[in-house]
Amino acid sequence: MARSGRSRRPARADAGAGAGPGPEAGPTFGELLEAAGLVEQTARATRHVIDQSNAAALAHAGRTGAAVSCLDCTAPKACCTLTTSAYLHEAIPIAARLRREGRDTPALRDALRAAAHRMETTPASRYQAPCVFLDDGERCTVYEERPSVCGTHLVSSPAAACSDPTVASIVKLVGTLQDRAPPEIDAQLTMRAGLRPLDRSYRGALPRMVLLCLEAWPRRDYVSFLGERVLAAAHRFAAATR
Ligand code: SF4
Ligand code: SF4
After folding, report:
1. In the predicted model, is pLDDT for residue 2 greater than 70?
2. CB-count burial class (<10 Å; 0-12, 13-18, 19+) for 182
3. Total structural domains in the chain?
4. Which pTM does this prediction carry?
5. Which atom of ligand 1 is nearest to the CA of 157?
6. What pLDDT shows up at residue 169?
7. Handedness of CA 164, 171, 91, 50 (dihedral sign)
8. Residue 5, domain member (yes or no)
9. Is-contact 102 159, C-beta < 8 A?
10. For the chain, which has fewer Cβ within 10 Å, the N-terminal or C-terminal residue?
11. Which ligand is closest to the CA of 137, given by its number?
12. In terms of residue numbers, what domain contains 226?
């Protein structure tokens, strides 16, 4: 019962799966997100997770005297060369920004596709490649919209250690919200956007989730498109990060 109650779209909405914008009269994914205010709301939700989680980590550092090396890090951003996950709700503000700034180009999509494939087929322990969004000056070009896993990644070991292969362990400062809040936001988005409930979160490799979001944006069959593509991508990502 809950399943049918969560579906905003009639059965015919799935009829054009894989065939691009279908003949149905419903909104595109982008139209739905903008009409429901979901671009700004998802962005705000992730910023809140990052702020709250980091406040807790910083308070912990204050109590224990641990350094927070990320605050004034000028080292090469080794943390931006790792396997990186993102929820669909985190990819939405990134995709919106890329579109707004005219950065949704065929070259960017090719780069996202290649990075996603690499991330989904390389064991996370061996993965090392600069993030598509890292620029030549080691700066994140989607910083304000970065996913929570990036924003809450703080370390207390020296910054230089992050890119030193001879250092055995990096000491992380773990925030409290990272495990709980993003799955809750994912469930809310699934319901509000009428997405197909999956047996897991709408979550996968960061470049894949951004790419799927960009591809879904002009589609009216986004329910079936995202349900099928994200589920397959989530399985590939789970295998790589197992
Ligand atoms: S994780 Fe390491 S490389 Fe990344 S910002 Fe923090 S100190 Fe710098
Ligand atoms: S999204 Fe930004 S912070 Fe996250 S890995 Fe990429 S460049 Fe780094």
Report:
1. no
2. buried
3. 1
4. 0.88
5. 7
6. 84
7. negative
8. no
9. no
10. N
11. 2
12. 28-241
